[in-house]
Amino acid sequence: MTFMGGFMGLYAICAHGSYGSAQTGNLMDLLIDVSDGNGFSAAARIGAFLIFSSGIAAAWLLHEFCTLPMRELCIVVDAAALMLSARLPEEVFAFFRVYPLFFATSFQWGSFNHVGQYPSATLFLTENLKNCVTRWLRYFFYRDVQDLTGARIYTLTIANYLLGGSLGCAAVNIHGAAGVCWAFAPLAVAALVLWQERCAQQEAEEPSEA
């Protein structure tokens, strides 16, 4: 899913000109639009902020009050958002075509935010880079196996994000917005991994035969 975070982020930039996986840049651009008196663009960025926030809220509410399989649902949401973003007509304001990805990425953030005991966002590099550097340093000085495990996890997380971003760029360069279809291969892999994990959990919960 970190691979998908990179894919969706770079796909949004290459296909539609805006990063669809965070709000820092969006809100900074909002302040610029307000200072420049660009009301239409400012309103569009407020819309992106509200949609991103609604994705976070939806993930939390479903996790707290429903029994839906959140991670499997997240894969469906990612696929639907990517297809919708690609199929919106070119006449639509480019930033609006990123709206579905704002929802999907924030929903993914609420659904995939840990690797075991290690917090890890699948949408961003900054925090993962910080954790990667500090875990390697801690292992170098203290030789704690948990720090080595964490360092490897964060290193692989960063590598997967960059690989996903590279694929997103390549998909757009070769096929344009239709390159979104490339995302279905990693999503299928993620679904297979979740299915295998669920089968393993069910087997472990079954009482052993006498």
Could you give the order of the helices and strands?
HHHHHEEHHH
> How much of the residues is beta strand, in percent?
under 5%
Widest beta sheet: strand line-up: 1-2
Quick one: how many beta strands?
2
The helix/strand class is mainly alpha
Please tally the helical runs, counting DSSP H or I stretches of 4 or more residues. Answer: 8
Roughly what percent helix? over 70%
Gyration radius (Cα, Å) is 19 Å
* Largest sheet data: 2 strands, antiparallel
Supply database-style keywords.
two-stranded antiparallel sheet; 2 strands
Walk me through what this model shows.
With 210 residues, the chain is an all-alpha fold. 74% of the residues lie in helices and 2% in strands. It has eight helices and two strands, in the order H-H-H-H-H-E-E-H-H-H. The chain has helices spanning 2-16, 24-36, 39-65, 70-87, 99-111, 126-142, 145-175, 184-205; strands spanning 114-115, 118-119. It has a two-stranded antiparallel sheet. Strand 1 (114-115) and strand 2 form a beta hairpin. The protein is globular and about 60 Å long.
